Amino acid sequence: MPTQASSAIRAGRLEVRLAQSAAEIDASQALRYRVFYDEMGAKPSAEMAARARDFDAFDEVCDHLLVLDYGKEEGAAPQVVGTYRLMRREHAAQAGRFYSSGEYDIGPILAHPKPIMELGRSCVDAAYRTRASTMQLLWAGIAAYVFKHGIDVMFGCASLPGTDPKALSVPLSYLHHFCQAPQALCPRALPALYTDMNLLPKDAIDEKSALAELPPLIKGYLRLGGFVGAGAVIDHQFNTTDVAVIVKTDMVAEKYYKHYERSAGP
């Protein structure tokens, strides 16, 4: 079971906490570049390619959640092996908008009267993806952050690989028919970007096999009681098909929620 000390949570040689320096944010951007561009085939700008970093203007105002490995040689800086970008209303005010608003009309979420948080830029180093503890630590860090800031709704864009909706007809149709968000919180893809997710009739979908086709991150959101918005968006830069995901924190699975409520203290 992970242990929490100060603002960090530890599990063996791994620790999850917020980035504390520009160097740590740079390391997270380097990890994002390796995963999104080197592995997944996203198309970098000339400046990104020259620096081998994934970055944008939102990085300057957001909190960056990191999983660090302290198991390298003694005295060396810990290695960033997992990351998430966390953006609250205060951050969006500084940036001028939430990242998701470039793809979705998030008006229903913005109108929510309680604190909200956008999740984004999630990735884990290839060598650490078979370790359940890495993703569990990221979720534990998110849970602690949710409690600290009283977050009521989490949201963001999650991706399916590829840009051909027909090839993704089963998972997209499954999300459309079985996982649609309540109208009061349902974002909708912007008209110029809207891609219909209703590609197969509901009775033609085998729920178990469709669920198996979803990327692990989207399945993780659904396990936490998550929903998706209306319409998908094709992201040609990242070679993905994006869906909007919404999670009410009062539905977060207890194994992530109750434990960290107790351990966080007053």
Task: Give the topology, please.
Blueprint: E1 3-5, E2 8-11, E3 14-18, H1 22-39, H2 46-51, E4 63-69, E5 79-88, H3 89-95, E6 104-105, H4 107-110, E7 116-124, H5 132-149, E8 153-161, H6 169-178, E9 188-189, H7 207-212, H8 216-223, E10 227-228, E11 233-235, E12 240-248, H9 254-264
Explain what the structure shows:
- It is globular, with a radius of gyration of 18 Å.
- The longest helix has 18 residues, at 22-39.
- Strands 1, 2, 3, 4, 5, 7, 8, 10, 11 and 12 form a ten-stranded mixed beta sheet that branches. Strands 6-9 form a two-stranded antiparallel sheet.
- It has nine helices and twelve strands.
- It has 266 residues and is of the alpha+beta class.
- Helix content is 33%, strand content 24%.
CATH architecture: 3-Layer(aba) Sandwich
Rg from alpha-carbon coordinates: 18 Å
Shape summary = globular
Distance between the termini: 21 Å
Q: How many individual β-strands? A: 12
Which consecutive residue ranges, at least 5 long each, have pLDDT under 50?
Answer: 1-6, 262-266
Kindly give the count of domains.
Answer: 1
Say which CATH homologous superfamily is assigned.
Answer: Gcn5-related N-acetyltransferase (GNAT)
SSE order, as H and E?
Answer: EEEHHEEHEHEHEHEHHEEEH
Beta-strand content: 15-25%
The main β sheet shows up as: 10 strands, mixed
Which key features would you list for this structure?
266 residues; disordered N terminus; 33% helix; globular; Aminopeptidase; two-stranded antiparallel sheet; alpha+beta; 9 helices; single chain; disordered C terminus; ten-stranded mixed beta sheet
